[in-house]
């Protein structure tokens, strides 16, 4: 389960461990036919008569057996690590930036934490349905108030931009943390917005309380679609093209900068305690549901000042310059780091594809 991470992140040459039984692409929770791996026996099988240089293990008896086969041995005391804050490596000491990771659980699945999660699960499903119905059925004010009462925390700061004097809507350019980002922005501003997306599951489209429009990845057609939508009203775009959980911003697509002079950057960040509302390899239609299943999910929104006209394409700047400027503004507001990594980089690392799959009735990748 961790082999890919170890090889990619720590440059590990080989991984030997207990294999779990699978049916198709799903784990059953049972061990494979080879059974539970015995460390010292696996070490002998792998190295033969050669002794490995260094061994690291715990104080368990089985670890003592395999550590005795190593030239140097180091024992990690779990209790000391828990009580020692210095045992947590600061982010700037990581051997590589940890930018992409997947999986639904946002906590360390200790036995007690896993038990709490399973006990909460049925309540979480009911709570998620309740929160979805609030957004779909009720006016903005009521939905926001009752959502906060249910434990959903939405914080917004900044000022609502003045209405454009031109016959065109305002283009909101957001950082992308969950599929619900445009919904939270629309609810917080108490105004209808249109969100554009490259692909969205049918379920997410059905439960979305705001208008969503699909793009085609054809630059000319997408530009014409966004220009038409801006003539009709305000528009939300997430130029990263996909979500990122870590404190980084992916490279911004520059298409949006060519279409509007009234651009408002919006810094969005979310926090969850139990379930992540994003996935690269799972069902995208469940992303909003998992986010709303958290006991107290939070979304922090900061509406930044409108981009000065002289810093837009109308002021003589190139679309790439405008996109990079807005990316930097959002990164500074969030305390994040700008990167040149793209949606394709994320999906190739996490799912082994470019994030574009054939649409079916359940899900698509974005």
Automatic annotation (TrEMBL):
Entry GO terms, CC: membrane
Pfam families, per the entry: Acyltransferase, HAD_RAM2_N
Topology with respect to the bilayer: Multi-pass membrane protein
GO biological process, one term: cutin biosynthetic process
Domain Phospholipid/glycerol acyltransferase: 170-271
Subcellular location as annotated: Membrane
Record-level Gene Ontology MF annotations: glycerol-3-phosphate 2-O-acyltransferase activity; phosphatase activity
Keyword vocabulary terms for this entry: Acyltransferase, Membrane, Transferase, Transmembrane, Transmembrane helix
Membrane-crossing residue ranges in chain numbering: 20-38, 113-133
InterPro entries: HAD_RAM2/GPAT1-8 (IPR056462), Plipid/glycerol_acylTrfase (IPR002123)
Superkingdom in the source lineage: Eukaryota
Protein family: Belongs to the GPAT/DAPAT family.
Protein name: Phospholipid/glycerol acyltransferase domain-containing protein
Species for this entry: Phaseolus vulgaris
